Amino acid sequence: TTSTSAAARPPPIHVAEVSDFEGLCYALEALVGSDGFTCRSRVHDIVIAPSTPDSYRAVVRYLAGNKFSYHTYQLQTERSYRVVMRGLNHRAPVGKIRTDIENQGHQVRGITNVLDSRTKRPLPLFFIDLEPAANNADIFDVSRVFFSEVRIEEPYRSRSTVQCTRCQEYQHTKGYCNRPPRCVRCGGGHESSTCLKTRETPATCALCGGDHPANYKGCQVYKELQERSRPGQPRGDVSSGRARPVAAVPVPTPMHVADAPPRVHQTPQSASPAARSLGPRPLHPPKPTPTRPSTLKKATPSKTPPPTQKMKLPSKAPSTQNEAPSRVPSRTATPARTSRPQRGNPIPQPSTENPYTNLFQPELLIKFIAEFKSLANGLMSALTSLSNILSSFTQTHTNIPPYEYQ
């Protein structure tokens, strides 16, 4: 199947600084045959893709023996089965850990204690690398190692790009790198473990030449690599550091008011014939023409006032003693207007009656004074009872003897 062929396909080999490409191809043809490999040239290196695992091993041995500058990756069939063991003290002996795990039916390739990325302090975590086997998944059933209760988990996949500690380049590791070494602190052509740089001497990046170590995450080379590795970003030549240009989207030119077509008003079909005959209405009403002050005429009031209608006041009916006076004034019907009807709601006419005429009658004043007097008497009685309660409460609490401290 496709997945099986992809898993069995050997990884590529990146060879840099090839001065004799023709001689290299003929040497590999004599070694593995013409069908044993293919080449793909890029800006800074040549990518060799072996066809079989045996061809991969033969090409790697040839490049290492002739001191080529290259890096590659591990075969899928040779990769170890890595798990994380939690809960074991970092001072536990590695030999005892290996023995306890192998006694439970597993073959251990390597054990590595995990350090904190910032403080470099050892953590109660271990990477356990097992040899590829059919029972690798049974390692998750292990719960006790060297007198400790442990928990086996799958390792988290790191989001950052892996960096080689030999040449300081990204996207490969030290175990499969045959490039010239470069120091992580001073950028020199030697191993980082043999560097003689002091703390007072500023660091030099081996990738960009800046005043920082090569593994600094703020390096411009690392930032550009992270941008290109994000999903959805255009893929370009990673070795050259240039991404594929994105096609420009045409932006429509904004239309100015002067270039806009004239606005045409159409008369609706439901309009009257007189309105349709007048034609379209203008966009804005015409401005009034200014006139000189001397030509203005002072408006004089008309001598004949407009006719007004006289309203008859309702006659006041005599009130009796048994009938209660009404506070709401009676209203009479307004006579119909003889003028022509106006558009919209008619303006309400003010009433000529005084609504407060019946409020100042002697009977109402006497009743209001009586109610107010009864309300005042009730309030005074409530205040008197409240004063008596407060006085009795004060006399009761003043007779309590003070507390004596022993």
TrEMBL record:
Positions with biased composition (Pro residues): 282-291
Pre-C2HC domain span: 94-162
Pfam families registered for this protein in UniProt: PRE_C2HC
Compositionally biased tracts (Low complexity): 243-258, 292-302
InterPro entries in the record: Pre_C2HC_dom
Superkingdom of the organism of origin: Eukaryota
Start-end of Polar residues biased regions: 317-342
Name the UniProt record assigns to this protein: Pre-C2HC domain-containing protein
